[in-house]
Amino acid sequence: MLEVIHISDTHFGPDRCHKIRGANACDRAIALVEEINRLPFVPDFIVHTGDVVNDPDESAYELAEEVLSGLPAPVYYATGNHDDVPMMRNALTFGDFDLLVPESDDQLCYRMGGSASPWEFFVLDGKVPPEEGPHGFLTENQTAAVLDSVSGDKPVAIFLHYPLTPIGSKWIDKHLLVTNGPDFQSALSEKAGTNLRGIFSGHLHRGLQIYRDGVLQSGVSSPACEFTAGPDDEGCDFLAGGPIPFHHISFSEDATMVKTYSIPFSRTA
Ligand SMILES: [Fe+2]
Fold first, then answer.
1. pLDDT (0 to 100) of residue 101
2. What is the rounded average pLDDT for all residues in the chain?
3. Fold observed for domain 2-263
4. Does 269 score more than 70 pLDDT?
5. How far does residue 193's CA lie from ligand 1's centre (Å)?
6. Cα of 129 to ligand 1 centre, how many Å?
7. pTM recorded for the entire structure
């Protein structure tokens, strides 16, 4: 059994006073770390699927490292649309991994734990230039490297910032997905078969569990604020000050189990 904690979208600012829609991002990330430390088990590792900071800024990443280094297991980070790869690599402490594309490409694409791991778990980087918008795109060098690394006889999971396929919300489906996500999912399914255990993402600032084309898509919300986009909405509003979300994912030999946590926020508790 492999026990993983999935978190996302902490949106740290350059100091402890930074607020997202009225909610203090640092205080809420500290509460997230405290709640994970209160669990009655120690996870094998933790994955943060991006938007570690709100704006790429060295002091924001230093603050993020100060807080997130309090997590009880190695942390793996994916690049969000608000992140900067060189700053992340400089400031944040990662678990062991094998890079799959050169870091000089300004992309963070790797296999967690390296080639000796009994699991084929990958982090991909879907970030596009900010002027293109908040959607993602997977470059061919990444998709080819991941597909080449899939043996077909080990459990496979993908962690990235952006969901790969539509979720049933007009605004989200139009603006926030990986534009070539369905193509990649289909190629990955073909290569990994029933060993494909799931696609795990953030970015939407809301919890998400979908089973599409035989593949689990699981997204975790943001401790900073939630998006409210409904099925027919052309935009979204924000809910700040809600509970603190994280997911506990258990990978056993024959199952993938996602337990959703939603903890009331109280820094004085
Ligand atoms: Fe975000």
1. 93
2. 94
3. Purple Acid Phosphatase; chain A, domain 2 (3.60.21)
4. no
5. 31
6. 16
7. 0.97
